[in-house]
């Protein structure tokens, strides 16, 4: 079906990690006991008035500026009216036709090629509460009853809306991955998709290659991970293309992604969409951010992931994939810088230890001093890389210095050539047949000889020095 192409746009909702909610002083914290972080304002009780959170407004401008958006001279909050049990006021305070940030872009890279994806708007709103459907499936259709938690109601929420510039599931994955990295680097959200801090809806339509008109759009919901986004779009892309091949009509609708089956199914048709009856929020004046404030925020932006990747490759010679992993997570990028500076080791060596830390980015960030000590010992040839892993594990578990653990376990490498030469001579003397085979051209036996020497040394021989001694003894094959 190469004569079809997909047209995809993403709507990403980001919960901001402010201390308090968007329009009141209630704590903004995940995991609290249900309905404990609530007050008359976020519950919409009569007589309560909303007051915008200055930190939330600053955070959204940070996002917009990082995405190359223009910060509007003024913007408005509106009331989005609809009834649902998790919306206590029966309306949501949101932005409609006058958003705060507009006309930006996000650069993605797929298969070595870069593309700019347009950003239509970045606007503010408040989150809704959370409804839990009790039953064997957790789905509304088979629920025995429902529970509503209003702790999340009023949490500051940002919606980032892309232009329909995405054409493949791979590009959609790259877009969400890059957006997530930018948001985490800005420090505006913890972007934990499993907790709902970052949520994504995808709009996808299909058309024949060369056709400039848009096909019938389908919105896909329940995409709770980057992998889910990609899987859902692959399924929907194939479903729509198959329907068009067969001459079957497509319906504009909202579909739900089934995580277990990897399929989408109809949730509701667009004909059932609500008329939200937007009108300006009468209790909040329009926002007019001072230009000096905007400039101050722009100047305070950190180095973003794309620029950090370029620096890691250009200045440190790291492979592109390794640079991507380090730049994607601020805590890992900081750990890399600290370990490099403290150990003085080769940057590729540092990157390998930081990226492959078994505890993941968070532990690498916490334990960077222990990593730096071990990397310094490995880079200096004091201990082997294999021993280094054992030392690091012990250092993290006990809190003891790496040097102390090395001495206690007798892990320091032997680099003294006189001692190593004796082991090399023993290994060659006891394996004369293999020596003859090596000299006859079987170069792969070099590893066998190294292993024999390491065995005699109890693993303490410096393998680099052993390699040099063996090549000198054996001569060219």
Task: Give a description of the structure.
The protein is α+β, with helices and mostly antiparallel strands. It folds into three domains: about 5-295, no CATH class; about 305-410, no CATH class; about 415-475, Arc Repressor Mutant, subunit A (Orthogonal Bundle), CATH 1.10.10.410. The protein is about 40% helix and about 20% strand. The chain has a nine-stranded mixed β-sheet with strand order 2-5-6-9-1-10-11-12-13. Strands 4-3-14 form a three-stranded antiparallel β-sheet, with no helix packed on it. Strands 7-8 form a two-stranded antiparallel ribbon. A hairpin with a 4-residue loop joins strand 12 (about 255-260) and strand 13. The two termini are about 55 Å apart.
Form type:
elongated
The helix/strand series, from N terminus to C terminus, equals EHEEEEEEEEHEEHEEEHHHHHHHHHHHHH
Cα distance, first to last residue?
Answer: 54 Å
β-strand amount = 15-25%
Provide the descriptors you would attach to this structure in a database record.
single chain, 477 residues, alpha+beta, Arc Repressor Mutant, subunit A, 3-stranded antiparallel β-sheet, 40% helix, elongated
Write the layout of secondary structure elements.
Blueprint: E1 4-15, H1 54-66, E2 70-71, E3 78-81, E4 91-94, E5 101-110, E6 113-126, E7 130-134, E8 145-149, E9 156-162, H2 169-186, E10 198-208, E11 218-223, H3 226-245, E12 253-258, E13 263-269, E14 279-280, H4 291-299, H5 305-316, H6 320-328, H7 330-343, H8 347-355, H9 360-366, H10 368-379, H11 385-398, H12 402-409, H13 417-429, H14 432-439, H15 446-456, H16 463-474
Helix pairs in contact: 2-3, 5-6, 6-7, 6-8, 7-8, 7-9, 7-10, 8-10, 10-11, 13-15, 13-16, 15-16
């Amino acid at each position: 079906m190469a004569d079809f192409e997909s047209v995809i746009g993403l709507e990403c909702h980001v919960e901001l990690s402010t201390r308090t909610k968007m329009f009141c002083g209630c704590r903004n914290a995940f995991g609290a006991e249900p309905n404990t972080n609530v007050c008359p304002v976020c519950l919409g009780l009569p007589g309560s008035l909303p007051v915008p959170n200055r930190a939330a407004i600053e955070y959204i401008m940070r996002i917009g500026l990082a995405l190359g958006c223009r910060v509007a001279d003024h913007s408005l909050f509106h009331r989005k009216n609809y009834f649902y049990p998790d919306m206590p006021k029966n309306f949501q305070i949101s932005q409609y036709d006058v958003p705060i940030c507009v006309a930006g872009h996000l650069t993605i890279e797929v298969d070595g090629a870069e593309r700019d994806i347009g950003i239509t708007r970045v606007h503010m709103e408040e989150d809704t509460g959370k409804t839990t459907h009790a039953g064997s499936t957790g789905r509304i259709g088979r629920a025995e009853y429902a529970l509503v938690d209003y702790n999340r109601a009023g949490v500051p929420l940002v919606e980032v809306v892309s232009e329909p510039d995405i054409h493949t599931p791979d590009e959609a994955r790259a877009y969400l991955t890059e957006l997530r990295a930018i948001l985490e680097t800005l420090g505006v959200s913890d972007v934990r998709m499993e907790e709902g801090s970052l949520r994504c809806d995808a709009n996808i339509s299909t058309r024949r290659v060369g056709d400039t008109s848009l096909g019938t759009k389908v919105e896909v919901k329940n995409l709770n991970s980057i992998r889910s986004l990609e899987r859902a779009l692959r399924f929907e892309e194939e479903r729509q293309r198959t329907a068009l091949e067969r001459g079957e009509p497509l319906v504009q609708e909202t579909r739900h992604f089934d995580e277990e089956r990897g399929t989408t199914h109809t949730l509701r048709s667009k004909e059932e969409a609500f008329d939200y009856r937007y009108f300006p929020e009468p209790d909040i004046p329009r926002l007019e951010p001072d230009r000096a404030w905007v400039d101050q925020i722009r100047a305070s932006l950190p180095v973003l992931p794309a620029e950090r990747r370029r620096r890691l490759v250009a200045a440190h010679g790291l492979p592109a994939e390794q640079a991507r992993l380090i730049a994607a997570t601020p805590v890992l990028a900081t750990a890399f810088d600290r370990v490099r500076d403290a150990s003085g080791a080769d940057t590729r060596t540092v990157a390998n230890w930081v990226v492959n830390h078994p505890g993941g980015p968070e532990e690498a960030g916490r334990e960077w001093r222990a990593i730096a000590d071990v990397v310094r010992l490995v880079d200096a040839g004091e201990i082997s890389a294999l021993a280094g892993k054992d030392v690091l594990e012990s250092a993290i578990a006990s809190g003891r210095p790496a040097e102390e653990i090395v001495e206690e376990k007798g892990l320091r490498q032997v680099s003294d050539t006189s001692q190593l030469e004796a082991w090399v001579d023993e290994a060659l003397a006891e394996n004369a047949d293999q020596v003859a085979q090596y000299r006859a051209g079987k170069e792969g036996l070099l590893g066998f000889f190294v292993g024999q020497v390491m065995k005699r040394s109890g693993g303490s021989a410096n393998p680099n020095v052993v390699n040099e001694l063996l090549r000198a003894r054996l001569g060219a094959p």
